[in-house]
Amino acid sequence: MSQKIRGVKGTRDVLPIDTYVKDEDPWVRIGHYDRVEQSARDLFPLYGYREARTPVLERTELFVRGIGEVTDIVGKEMYTFDDRGESVTMRPENTASLVRAYVEHNVNQQEPETKWWYLGPMFRRERQQRGRYRQFTQIGIEAFGSPGPRIDAEQIELLDRWLRTLGIPFEMHLNTLGDAACRPKYREALQAYLRSRASELCEDCRKRIEANPIRVLDCKNPKCQEVAAGAPRMEQFLCEPCQVHFLGVQEMLARLGVGFVLDPKLVRGLDYYTRTTYEAIATSGLGSQSTVAGGGRYDGLVKELGGPDIPGIGFAAGVERMALILTQQGKERVTRPLVFIAPLGDAEAVRADALAQQLRAAGLAAEVSFRKANPGNQLKRADALGARFALVLGEQELKTDRAKLKELKTGAQHEVSLSALPDEVRRLATAG
Ligand code: HAM
Asked: What's the whole-model pTM score?
């Protein structure tokens, strides 16, 4: 036998087979992904979001300029390669790509406000652990053209509703990062403070003091956290418009009945944020990678990427993390074959195939047996598939056009006419 070929580290297969635990990280069934995705497809359009799809491959410059050169993502996590003289990158996130598309297609000239949602794989070369992968799936939204704060609160309410619908336990964290007018002053004050305590910081954070001091605030190292606890806070430096904006978001959330906690350490890992930032953090079901969704306002990004001065705000959620929580809760919606048809001979098999085709054409799930087995074993197979009804087709049934449809859970037998099978099944399925 030749050697097996394994999947690339940090990637995972999502299969329709049963969940099992491997290295503490349960494989997730496709049904959980489907629930997460379907609920977004149902909910997001109610808020006016329309789906947008952009390519996985983008010019590297887009992320360098968009996400920021000194971020972990751009600094060490991108899958970048030379495509015959042009540097391209497999998108590590989708906000920069959507902004690129928004600018490239002059969308602002067609509509003053734009709401887009997206779903797809993202790529970051991170250290693999539970809830953190090198290929992962994000579902997100972006809104362009609304300066807020009402849209900020509307997005947070959407995220809150979505996670509640799915039964994911979480806490909504909220912060503000100020804007170009007030953040530089805060940055300076923070740098001065961090320099004075540099010897207590981890190596990464010592480098961050000059390059990206705000990121020191969310370092996981306990010593850095101690230093961070005594650091000056953004709220002390907020300019008047930022303060008004932030209070506006909080007021709106209170009016909409959305709970949140103020979290000055919520600084996010991407450089484009201004003012509002928010994250939904799972309160159980995930280990250290407990942020289910995160986002915020990025009022300077459209301009930074060559477009007009138009504000934006959005969030992205990690589908794998959400599916992991649902896996642990054991909640899953699965489509099972409604009718399992087991033909006993060749002539019956021809009829079984035709009956299955008629059932499916009528929108009813059906599966036929491709194996030769006795009726007892066929019924066992129907049971294992989770079918609701089983129909064993023999010579007699073909001759009389009458057959017994067995309801597997109750054992009840319903006599049905084969030529009217779709109608008969629909009647029985809706009856009980
Ligand atoms: P982010 O915080 O980098 O933000 O990612 C958003 C979510 O994607 C995270 O909360 C997490 O659930 C999931 N995620 C990120 N990295 C991984 C990974 N390696 N493995 C599994 N899941 C992961 C953004 O990407 C921004 N574009 C969000 C945004 C949209 N801001 C404004 N608009």
From this structure: 0.89
CA distances in angstroms from 393 to 178, 335, 353, 360, 368, listed in the order given: 72, 24, 11, 18, 11
Is the CB–ligand 1 distance for residue 320 below 6 Å? yes
Q: What is the CA radius of gyration of the chain?
A: 27
Helix pair angle (150-166, 30-43), 10° resolution: 140
- Is residue 343 in contact with ligand 1, taking CB distance under 6 Å? no
Which residue's entry shows tokens 């129907």?
Answer: 382
326 closest CA partner among 17, 35, 118: 35
CA distance 188 to 432: 69
Residues in the chain: 432
pLDDT tens-digit readout, 270-317: 889 999 999 999 998 788 889 999 999 999 999 999 999 999 999 999
Peptide bond into 149 cis (omega under 30): yes
Which tokens is 363 given? 């929108």
Q: Is 126 in the pocket of ligand 1 (CB under 6 A)?
A: yes
Any ligand 1 atom below 6 A from CB of 93: yes
Closest residue CA from atom 6 of ligand 1: 316
* Best probe residue, ligand 1, of 91, 136, 173 (max atoms within 8 Å of C-beta): 136
| Rounded distance between C-alpha atoms, residue 101 and residue 251, angstroms | 33
